[in-house]
Amino acid sequence: MSSRLFSISFDAQDPERLAEFWAGTLGLGRAEEVPAYGGVTLLSGNDAGYRIGFRHSAARKTDQNRLHFDLTSSSAQDQEETVARALGLGAQRIDIGQGPDAAHAVLADPEGNEFCVIEPGNNFLAGCGRIGALACDGSQAVGYFWSETLAWPLVWDQDEETAIQSPDGGTKITWGGPPRMPDPGREPHLDLVADGDQEAEVERLIGLGAKRLGATDGVVLMTDPDGNEFRVLALH
């Protein structure tokens, strides 16, 4: 038994507005509504097979997110066009200490979620699609946990840094090792669908090191071994 990654989800004060931003920046279409999800989703167009989701939350972001998208570029012109498109849709350039000589661009979407537009020629993200990586702050142990949870093999495991990728390819999920950044109060998270009995899958995840926080309307809220919240949905 395993879980399938249903969506990489953003909590947003205006989910429709944020969905429009990411749809326009990445050229993505709206996915069919799933009532159990409780928000708006986009088709990621990615071999990993997940959606990008947006759900309403009144919580405010107070610090830098501990996870963000790394968008890929096929050329210097493509990188410039992606940045210009995002800025035109409401993004802002930000400084998180990358320095003036950084080859990648660091931006924030209209609700302050950081993301990077990576320069062309990045071998680690080659072939991963436009959303090359979901880059996370986290421990080696949490990388192992998510590898077991999703049945995505480890594609990097060195110096406490880990990365996993779907057997079908697509976006990599990476963890940078210690030290961990402060909790920003609101940041993207993963939403899963159990392949089989939801309660049995929840128990399996607890055995892997997750904790159950509660459940409502067929959705189980949990935390991974680093304390990051995620949800397990029942869609059948």
TrEMBL record:
Residues 8-118, 134-233 form the Glyoxalase-like domain. It comes from the Bacteria. This is VOC family protein.
